[in-house]
Request: fold
Amino acid sequence: MSARRIARCLLRIAFLLALSVGLFSCASTSKMRAVSTKTDEVGKLATENQRKSEQLRDDLNSLQRKVEQLSRRARVQDAETKQSLKELAQRLDELCASVDDVSQQQESLRAAVLDLEDMIDRFSQKNARDKGHRSRKRIFAAARKDYNSGNYRSAIMGFRNYIAAYPNSSVADDAQYWVAESLFAARQYKKAIKEYKGLLEKYPKSDRTAESLLRLGMCYQRLGKQEEAAKFFTDVSKRFPASNEARIAKSQLGKQNKPMKAHP
Reply:
């Protein structure tokens, strides 16, 4: 029951009491006074209840206003929170994109480093090849110089060192030939024969083949082995008929009837 309804009920009771007083006019004065006093108390009680009711209503309105304020504040804070979350999400996307960019840059940098390392390796290999080529040329040239100077022992050592260091060189067969030539020039015919035959076995397609065959015939000829010499002179004449070596070989074959003094 609300405070207003309580107040109305009390007023009705007071009215009824007053009416009772009028109806019962024969009652004693003391009783009437008591009733009047009671009526006043009821009126005060009703007034007090009305005041408390109004106070409660005011408190309720105040509380309602506070609730509305808190609701508005919560809505504002919720909007601010959503905006902050949205900004954080955007920032996170930007950071992810930055990470992807950095990763791509790192990949590009790694690829550039690999390309640079490959370029350095190629340059180093080329430089090493160039140095090796110059070194090969110096060794070969020094051995030829020794040969031309008649220093056959040094020439043989130089050409053999060249072959040992560069066995796959395009002029390795030349080095082998000049080892044999140095021995031939030093009149070491048996050793020269071994070197010429070694050239023919190791380098069957060498440009020095005709010269080596002619030199073999000449070595055997100087050792007094005419039959062996004739075999090589005949061989070079048949295999290289238009060469200068074939012409010399035919000339040597024509001299077979003239005995030659054998060299030791």
